[in-house]
UniProtKB/TrEMBL annotation:
Key words of the record: Amino-acid biosynthesis, ATP-binding, Kinase, Nucleotide-binding, Transferase
Family matches, as InterPro entries: AceGlu_kinase-like_sf, Asp/Glu/Uridylate_kinase, Asp_kinase, AsparK_Bifunc_asparK/hSer_DH
Pathway annotation: Amino-acid biosynthesis; L-threonine biosynthesis; L-threonine from L-aspartate: step 1/5; Amino-acid biosynthesis; L-methionine biosynthesis via de novo pathway; L-homoserine from L-aspartate: step 1/3; Amino-acid biosynthesis; L-lysine biosynthesis via DAP pathway; (S)-tetrahydrodipicolinate from L-aspartate: step 1/4
Domain of life: Bacteria
Keyword Manganese: no
Family classification: Belongs to the aspartokinase family.
Protein species of origin: Algoriphagus aestuariicola
Protein name in UniProt: Aspartokinase
Alphabetical list of PANTHER family matching this protein: ASPARTATE KINASE, ASPARTOKINASE
Recorded catalytic activity of this chain's protein: L-aspartate + ATP = 4-phospho-L-aspartate + ADP
Record EC number: 2.7.2.4
GO MF term set: aspartate kinase activity
Length: 422
């Protein structure tokens, strides 16, 4: 039997009715019975759901936000279906369920769990609409809830995969269908041992594609994007970008580690472990070859630029005329770990530890609160972390012009700077 193919379509590829029609054309000649199609929420729906949650937390009215979101989805349906199609009632019904859930109590204490019960809604409604539309175009797919096979622990918002259980459910519940029907499902969401909804972290749908591919023993994963493939810099920020025809797993993983948003950072490892190739292709130019990420790629030396925004630089200074010792580093890392904060850059001096972390709701306060008795702490928000892999020495300064550099670090293969616009 031919092996399963996994396709993933992100938010931009389903952002309006024209995009959904384009996705349909991509599938027209490519759909096969042993295929899993993973879709994200439409456009910026997940951001919109996050804003609804922040408003609710702040006890502000969010009814306007939820009606705008509903209107957005209904308008997409209007572009795809004729009046009276059952999808309209389905979408109304899903929004009713969302509104009911939003009636429940939310506080800082249950925020993460509440968040996971809400934000996956974008994927659920999107996958319904796309599945209905494909079927209406004679591309038969079976809609499946990813939460029945993607099993996680209960780390809400950043749930960890239970690989064993996920594999088992994939084999028992989805394998028998594949080969007879393609499956259309959602990225980003899973469920914990009690069956509660969880999410895998923002932009996690790529990771879902990798999880399903690994668990189903797929032959490849294709991520359909609005870029021609993996480029050596984000074309939305930098000019003169170059596309890689192929990349090794390690090189690709390194780029995502430093913040390249073309693929979710967790996507590569599970695929690399079992040698499943990952294709990144353009949904605007589906015939073009894109980028192939696989184990046998020839290494390259092309300077690769990655920018991470919304960064915070925190410096912990020892207060008692001593010097930085292992114990100090340990204390800071212990807190970071407890808060599930990853350090994007670290620099030590004789009397201080400087770290760069992503800005995340509440987390900075919690970090400072715990450590303020031991250190003199300073921080700067709203920074950017620039990483250049394989830097060409003469090229670096161009990226720092017009910026104040707060921290800088260079090794033979990597240059990093924390910068702020002057
Ligand atoms: N919809 C989710 C997000 O925007 C997951 C994804 O798109 O990958 O984060
Ligand atoms: Mg997305």
């Amino acid at each position: 039997m031919a092996k399963t193919l996994v396709y993933k379509f992100g938010g931009a590829s389903v952002k309006d009715s024209i995009a959904v029609k384009n996705l349909t054309e991509i599938l027209r000649n490519r759909l096969r019975k042993d295929m899993v199609i993973v879709v994200s929420a439409m456009g910026k729906t997940t951001n919109a759901l996050e804003s609804i949650l922040s408003r609710k937390l702040a006890k502000e009215d969010f009814s306007q936000n939820s009606s705008t979101l509903k209107a957005f989805h209904l308008e997409i349906c209007e572009g795809l279906f004729s009046a009276g199609h059952p999808i309209f009632a389905q979408v109304q019904n899903l929004f009713l369920q969302l509104e009911n859930k939003l009636e429940l109590d939310l506080s800082r204490e249950n925020y993460d769990e509440f968040y996971d019960s809400i934000v996956g809604f974008g994927e659920l409604v999107s996958s319904r609409i796309v599945a209905e539309y494909l079927c209406s175009q004679d591309l038969l797919v079976v809609w499946k809830d990813a939460r029945e096979v993607v099993k996680t622990n209960s780390d809400f918002r950043f749930a960890k995969i239970d690989w064993e259980e996920t594999k088992k459910s994939c084999s028992s519940q989805w394998k028998p269908l594949l080969g007879n029907f393609p499956i259309l499902t959602q990225g980003f969401i899973g469920s914990d041992p009690k069956g509660k909804p969880t999410t895998l972290g923002r932009e996690g749908s790529d990771f879902t594609a990798a999880i399903l591919a690994t668990s189903l023993g797929a032959s490849s994963v294709t991520i359909w994007k609005d870029v021609p493939g993996v480029l050596n810099a984000d074309p939305k920020i930098f000019s003169d970008t170059r596309k890689f025809d192929e990349l090794g797993y390690r090189e690709a993983a390194e780029m995502t580690y430093f913040g390249a948003s073309v693929i979710h950072p967790k996507t590569i490892k599970p695929l690399a472990n079992v040698d499943i190739p990952l294709f990144v292709k353009s949904f605007l130019d589906p015939e073009a070859p894109g980028t192939k990420i696989h184990g046998a790629a020839i290494p390259h030396e092309v300077p690769t630029i990655v920018l991470k925004k919304e960064q915070i630089l925190v410096s912990f200074k020892v207060t008692d005329f001593t010097f930085i010792e292992e114990l100090h580093i340990h204390r800071v890392y212990e807190r970071l770990q407890a808060l599930k904060l990853r350090v994007n850059m670290l620099q030590l001096s004789a009397i201080s530890i400087s770290i760069v972390i992503d800005a995340q709701l509440f987390k900075l306060d919690q970090l400072l609160e715990k450590l303020k008795s031991e250190f003199e702490i300073r921080y700067n928000e709203g920074l950017e972390l620039l990483t250049i892999l394989h830097p060409a020495q003469e090229g670096i300064s161009a990226y720092l012009e017009g910026y104040e550099v707060l921290l800088e670090q260079a090794s033979r293969n990597t240059f990093q700077a924390v910068r702020r616009k002057i």
